[in-house]
Protein 1
Amino acid sequence: MKPSPHQDHPWVAVDVVIFTIDEGVLKALLVNLKEGPFRGHWAFPGGLVSLGESIDAAAIRELSEKTGLRHIYLEQLCTFGDPHRDPRAHVVSVAYFALLPRADRRLAEHPKYARLEWRAVTALPPLAYDHNRIAAYALDRLRAKLAYTNIVYSLLPDEFTLGELQEIYEMILGTTLDRRNFRKKLLAAGLLRALPRVRRGPHRPATLYAFAQRRPMNIPIL
Amino acid sequence: MKPSPHQDHPWVAVDVVIFTIDEGVLKALLVNLKEGPFRGHWAFPGGLVSLGESIDAAAIRELSEKTGLRHIYLEQLCTFGDPHRDPRAHVVSVAYFALLPRADRRLAEHPKYARLEWRAVTALPPLAYDHNRIAAYALDRLRAKLAYTNIVYSLLPDEFTLGELQEIYEMILGTTLDRRNFRKKLLAAGLLRALPRVRRGPHRPATLYAFAQRRPMNIPIL
DNA sequence: GCAAAAGTGTTGAGATTACACCCATGC
DNA sequence: GCATGGGTGTAATCTCAACACTTTTGC
């Protein structure tokens, strides 16, 4: 690794796939590009990494610029480095994925983009760059991680019912799960804490739960 | 993502952790640096990505420059982007790991490095940059992948005995495995083909096996 | 004949699945 | 009182782990 300042090099960018649950569906945040060869196309939010800025910091910056939020679950996915993925220049992009609780979904306005929208991951439009590949990759990773980590806490508000939790699992995995077995496994995993309160609705009240620990852990769940 | 050519940007490099089995031990290829702030230190082979070169191509190039080999198992690991990981400049490094069959271990000479050496992964010296982190990460990934992919074929010659295969699993995982259960599982996975030949040695001859398919597949093994 | 690795099945425990009925509430 | 989601237990199956002896060869 011998930096030679007189030679041209690729640029480095980050792109962030931000997932959330909205209207009972798993959605991702898309931005509509105002400029460049993909003007008018949808893409995941992203941008160049500045000199002296760590790539994690760049991803956090993107997140907070676009959603106004910090302290969100954020994980590096994969790096895409095909020289032709951006027609303007060779841009190596480090993809991240983030999980947003459904409670907080206000979106910051941003001069760089025409619009920001939450779109169902099962019906994404054709995206700019290689972002459809990033989307597929992110969704695979999210599905895999549901089974052996507790990161689903990042998609949930502080309090939730077991029914709501199961609904999220089913939505993301695209399957249905047996209610009794699901409850047994999740309670056996010891990640949840029953609260002395219930959620009232049109039917029988449901016990509210909270995560005992709101930090990422590797634990077999399903 | 709006490239602005007048601004300085980080550079992009690849670093490759090349594993092989040697003398009954899992080893990684280290290079001794001739220049730079880590002169005299050991590191994994790596180098800057050229403009117009995909990062996968850069990793393949590193591999073939250092080992003279192509068509080796190669997988992207993770990207490290701390601005201070290289004291000279902000270099974002995409780490890869590669698996080399033990048969082919001749090493190409390389003007950039003082020496190339295979070193046991359980006793790596302090490495340049953040390469000890990369090493830990690569080893974790390799261990995890043994259980649910067939990539171990990349560490083995065309023909091998079940005993040799088990030895490799035990070596990498750092555990011992029950021989009967191990054989049952591997044969049940259907990845192996018994050859009509045996390996003769000082004791009872062992049936030789080959992998039915020498390409990466995700299949539960252990 | 003996040392050393190869080869082979069974059993018990634990985990996982499948499955049906009553409960509490709002309307 | 009825529609709706909440809450609960058991039996059958499958998977996984533990375990010991015989075989074949080189020396």
Note: DSSP finds four helices and ten strands in chain A.
Protein 2
Amino acid sequence: MVKHSQATTIRDVARQARVSAATVSRYLNRSAPVAAETGQRIQQAMRELGYSPRLAARALATHKTYTVGVISNALNYAFFGPLLRGMDEVLREQEYRLLMATCIAGQDRGNLPFGPHNTDGVVVFANTVDDEQLIEWHAVGFPCVLLYRLPPGDLSFPCVNVENHAAVRQLTEHLIEAHGRRRIAFIHAPDYHQDDLQREAGYREALRRYGLPYDAALVLRGDYRREQASRAIEAFLARVLSDCDAVVAGDDDLALTVLGALYRAGVNVPEQVAVVGFDDQHFAASLVPPLTTVRAPTETVGRVAARQVLRLIRGEAVERETLLPTDLVLRRSCGCAGQSLRKGLSESYHPQMLVGR
Amino acid sequence: MVKHSQATTIRDVARQARVSAATVSRYLNRSAPVAAETGQRIQQAMRELGYSPRLAARALATHKTYTVGVISNALNYAFFGPLLRGMDEVLREQEYRLLMATCIAGQDRGNLPFGPHNTDGVVVFANTVDDEQLIEWHAVGFPCVLLYRLPPGDLSFPCVNVENHAAVRQLTEHLIEAHGRRRIAFIHAPDYHQDDLQREAGYREALRRYGLPYDAALVLRGDYRREQASRAIEAFLARVLSDCDAVVAGDDDLALTVLGALYRAGVNVPEQVAVVGFDDQHFAASLVPPLTTVRAPTETVGRVAARQVLRLIRGEAVERETLLPTDLVLRRSCGCAGQSLRKGLSESYHPQMLVGR
DNA sequence: TTGTAAGCGTTATCAT
DNA sequence: ATGATAACGCTTACAA
């Protein structure tokens, strides 16, 4: 027995329209034909009473929430903007909504923000949720899409990734080949995601192909928090600067920090040290010098992920892994001419002009 | 009559623990004392069955969703990261979750993503939701906090703002006074928020105080979409560059674009043209040259907003308007020395050294 | 085409 | 301290 200051319910509308609640429901959900004239009355009654259905009740009855959750460890990277936007757009079109929450892997054990009890499905960023939980979700068939990572074991979660290895390999090769760099440093992202490891692998592969030695001293491991990136990078550069002519940063945020540090150190980019990043975030083109980087279709990643959860939710077939292609965007910071160039990974090695910027 | 592949319910737990559902509920919510030993059995039963309460049912019974919605027109600015993060942190501590959705003012008339039917309260970004809707929410006492704007009419919605006018005034005065700039351009944000207007007012006030003429030709109105900022700004600068020695940008994103455009135009910053922004986004310090700007406590804005909705939800007293102070951050782009300086608005006009960066 | 009534999973009132 | 049971607002099978 619960008492509440009543908001208007479907019964109020029904009474006002002189029909049963069932009919109103049917009209609302188009779940069965309703006489045109009856529909008019219902329509009007709803307007008059300012009715809006209580989603909790609907969810309880139907076991559908029309809500998808996105779980990430942090949402303060600029990087998340396009990602969320992409997801939101697609979900919105389909009348779903996006619920987001952060979650520290390990820490929030068994107390995740989302699950079958409050969402129809989730999108999981990188290694935010631990394997044990994923396995459980898999067992109960809870719709779940993985972002920037592969499923643990042989679980059949669909996942969305971008091409990392080949992109960074080509970028590094470009530094070697086109700009004659030999002592190339690599800066890991603060967290060892699969992405990050693949990028380093691409970097190493490029060195190998050109017979350059891999020097651990030129690699900054990601043992720092994102907020401390500036200090960590500054210290790292102080060590290697005298013996280094290029820096491959794990992502644009890091490249930005590198640029700042080099500026303060009075080092010219790209003359003395070339700098490249990954992502092609919105600021990359406006940096001084404009940043050579890899264009990752982050918004598309979000869109694809959203589409996949929706398919999962509807019981439709999904692709197991979606690997989105990336492009090299050659700007000034690697040593290229001022004009922006763009190179598709799948294309032959002849850069084509990038229209506009 | 609905049939579903049953997930475990509170009754299953009750049966397993040989108690009634009511007792399990009481144990779960600490709403009444439960014998220690009974608690043990319930605890164990829940674990064994992997029980987690269905939130929709709970929401239906209690009329509480433990969810707060944030409505904005777009969430792809880097700017939103800290904002969301701040809100999320506070809500999370209080076991609430954050639901986010975009909404185009005017377009989504009467079909908002959030409302009393699915959330306990909302945070509204700038003018995303139209006054009519706000008035309705106000009438029914729906918890709602406004961000970066004042309430329409004399409505008593709490709102959270940052100090815009004085900050931009001082920043502009700094350009005039410390760096002798006379022909200062102003670039509006793509959407005329209250923030934006206050910033322009600050700019004009500074000119007035120093007897400089206001020249409409030096002001770029925000009649462009964010994605087209680059072109709009480039065109604008092409017009005014010959007669302009400083640019006050409406925010850091715009300042970034200005920097990029000036670089391409071969203009030296700050020697030929000084550039300043607003927000002190994470990239500002790393730009070349480092950006002089106004530090806006965006994450704090989020935190305060979240706290206010929670107070509203709990029926506690709230501040009508929270005006958060901003600080000038003097870096190189205005013409100051390389070392970063910071100036509190409330302090006297003697810049103090900024610890670290 | 419409109405009746059961049921969704939880909380809360009233007993005991 | 615990148990029965109504109620939350909606959907849907079944009947008419």
Note: Residues 1-4, 9-11, 21-22, 25-26, 28-29, 31-32, 53-62 of chain A lie near DNA strand D (CB under 10 Å from a C1').
